[in-house]
Amino acid sequence: MRRVNVYESEFCNKIVARVKYNEKLDYWNGRNWGNGGLGMHKGITKLKDGRFVIIIGSQIQGSKDYAYIVSKEEALQEVLESGNVELLEEQKFAELKTLYEKLCDLEEIDEAETTSEQ
Question: Which domain of life is it from (predicted)?
C-alpha cells in the first residue's frame, strides 16, 4: 500500500504525517469512479492524534498524491458530498457519526408534527 504525505493544511508545505492512500470518498458518476474533477480521487482517514485527513489522488501524469488536515466538520462535509455515508459506521469515524446525527436532528419539521403541536 502506498503512502502519501500529510500537510498541515491544503495550502501549507509542512509535512506532519504520512498515511496509507485510499479513495473512500470516490463515487460512481455513471462512467467512472472519481471525485473532484477529471482523473481526481479523494480519500479520508484519521490520524492517531484524532485529526482527520483528506487524501487527494490524481491520475494526471506528473502530479503527486497528497493529503491535508481538516476539521471534523470539514471531514463530515466531504463524506456527505461523496454520498458514502456508510463510512460513518467505521469505528474511526464515530465522532463524525455523532456530528451527523446532530445534523439530522435539525431536519425540517414534518407537517404532522406542526399540526399536533398546535
Answer: Bacteria
* Phi-psi region at 14: left, alpha or beta (left = phi > 0; alpha = psi -120 to 50): beta
What does the buried/exposed string (b/e) look like for 82-93 if buried means 16 or more CB atoms within 10 Å of the residue's CB?
A: bebeebbeeeeb
Q: How far is CA 60 from the centre of its chain?
A: 21
Amino acid at 78: E
Q: Which residues of the chain have pLDDT under 70?
A: 30, 36-37, 108-118
Orientation angle between helical segments 72-82 and 94-105, nearest 10 degrees? 80
Helix (H, G, I), strand (E, B) or coil at 49: coil
The Cα 33–Cα 35 span in angstroms is: 7
User: Within a 13 Å sphere around the CA of 69, how many CA atoms are in the beta-carbon half?
Assistant: 15
